[in-house]
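ugh ok fine here u go
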Amino acid sequence: EELETLAAGLGDAVLSAQTVKVMGTHAMMAGRSAQGLKLLGAAGRELAVLGEEELAALAAMDECHGLTASGDFPAARAAGERLLERVGEGEGYIRGSALAVIGCCLMFDGHDFGAAGERLREALRLRYALRDQFSFGIAVDMLAIHASRSGRWVRAASLCGVGQSIWRRFSAPLAGIAVIIAQRDRAAARARAELGEERYRAAFAHGASLSLEDAVRLADSDADTVVPRPPRADLAALSAREQEVASLIAEGLTNRQIAERLVISKRTADAHVEHILAKLGLSSRIEVGP
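structure:
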């Protein structure tokens, strides 16, 4: 409220709209869904009118999360699809959130489980590329729920273990979204009941023990478990140019974007990426760490 008064006094329309967005997000997290959604919608419309498209998209992203948290999955999915159309292919943060919302809604509404898994894994890849472990943890737990609903009990238990190892770093697992926390806990309980305590604990411990890169390989695959990779070759094995390319891969750039950044052909960028993966003993560019 103080910020709202300050923004009004300054005559700053953008700050006023952002204040409404913050108030909407706070209302959602406090359980006042109707009020929160109304404020977020108003903030997004005002920011769009002011030409602040990125800020408007962020408000729309929070609105997607709010609709998901309220359990209105058809509306949340529609909002997520609109948000996907709104942001470009090169954008990772908002796009990852939209994909996660769509995957979540497809899963909870019992529509296409295959498509739900694809959307959730795509969201996971984008979030890992951004090195956003908080959002990555949400994606992992969503995939654990997906595995349980698909009857993949070992995979569900393994992913629950991965999730716990990530959430130890934070105080609010799953961003405090009660409906999803309940689904995740239900998934874990069902996997424990189906596997028995001993097998569940073994799978859970397997997931919890994985390095972040191995956790990505598990979550981004259709496997129940993964064999941990041995320590990879040191970056010193790479040439100066390959180290430069590796740093851009870690930023989440595509091969074409790397070529444009370094003013080289895409074919040359492709070759550099292949050499980097071979030298480091990796199978996918997503495994290239920071």
